[in-house]
Amino acid sequence: MTTKVPIVENILSANEQLAVSNRARLDAAGVFAINVMASPGAGKTSLITRTIEALRETHRIGAVDGDIATTLDADRIAAFGAPTVQINTGGACHLDAVMLQGALPQLPLEELDLLIVENVGNLVCPASFKLGVHRSVLIASVPEGDDKPYKYPVMYRGVDGLVLNKMDVLDAFDFDVDYFRQGVEALNPGLAFFPLSCKTGEGLEGWLNWLRNEVQDHVPGNPGKDR
Amino acid sequence: MTTKVPIVENILSANEQLAVSNRARLDAAGVFAINVMASPGAGKTSLITRTIEALRETHRIGAVDGDIATTLDADRIAAFGAPTVQINTGGACHLDAVMLQGALPQLPLEELDLLIVENVGNLVCPASFKLGVHRSVLIASVPEGDDKPYKYPVMYRGVDGLVLNKMDVLDAFDFDVDYFRQGVEALNPGLAFFPLSCKTGEGLEGWLNWLRNEVQDHVPGNPGKDR
Prior knowledge:
Two copies of one chain form a homodimer. Chain A has one domain: P-loop containing nucleotide triphosphate hydrolases (Rossmann fold), CATH 3.40.50. Chain A contains eight helices and seven strands, in the order αβαβαβαββααβαβα. Chain A has helices spanning 14-29, 44-55, 72-78, 97-103, 148-151, 153-157, 177-187, 204-217; strands spanning 32-38, 61-67, 84-88, 114-118, 135-141, 161-165, 192-195. In chain A, strand 6, helix 7 and strand 7 (192-195) form a beta-alpha-beta unit. Chain A binds chain B through residues 39-41, 67-70, 72-73, 91, 93, 120-125, 128, 141, 143-145, 147-148, 150-154, 166, 168-169, 172-173, and chain B through 39-41, 67-70, 72-73, 91, 93, 120-125, 128, 141-145, 147-148, 150-154, 166, 168-169, 172-173.
């Protein structure tokens, strides 16, 4: 006697199911959301505060800040007037869709245009957990070295925009921008690339224009990117 | 009728059991081993090559290099003449005792005094996986920022030595060494601290002296630190 084992295709993981639900909730409220990832100290919070500062006259912006411990970053962001929710992961090395699900009800979603999610500082784990946002952005930084695309390919493959921060100290480091970009292009051809300095403000306009366009072009409910 | 449930204490996880076994193997061969951890780009490979260069006349040194992809770092280390084994974790965000167990037979352990294990670039996950080595060392770097002890406390708590690399660019960054050290002291009082620059070589002697002493003072089989 044989038993036929049913094969069910396209089963979503629990995390992916919740990501879909988060996306639906954001779309229903008309909020465009991005996930910002990077190594520790690459400049996530600096880019976010610069972005809020530049766009707050034209966009209603909220933030979710993921950290293992402390509210240092969330405090910095909230100081720029954006409604901010802190997620302390309590040791976990990434945000996931469950954590974002818990954060969304604490934000005035109906009153926001843009939600910026700051992930935990980590160039590995966050790449594997969808949150249900519309775009993912990676911040690299000059002092980290030009070999990072080669050594952390999963992260570089799964993003829609790449910021290279701390360009103001390029001369102090042995960083070959061409070698860096070759590594990026091999993994993610045509990836939007923004070399800039959050410290001096140089190059920020390219990043801001890209983000403005992404928010403007977004059609809620359009499946688009799956991040 | 009641059943008495036996309580078994001190059960080691599978990883910890293998760490004990790795330690026994290292001790049997008379090898002192350290685990070097850091964020991506903080300077793990640079510190290791500087260390091999400085100690190779007096110590027989081998290396294990953990990376998600590529052999870029292992190639750099092997170029300094140390027997080197590359572990490509294939996406995993840390080394564990199983991976080290697989690497040890590929090294001439009986001919080594010191084994340097370079973990995956990650300030979170490697802190949770013992390898069976004798000491753990963390490399922070100036461009990462002075708030990292506060934000990544688990990593800072579990190490025996702390290097602060890239001191040559201190003036280019807004890094308060006192604030950094206060955070460290609160988590790990009296932690050996070595501000240095792998680029210029300044400050390396303090680190090298500490490492020389740790190797010299080590009594194989002494339980000591459990890393």
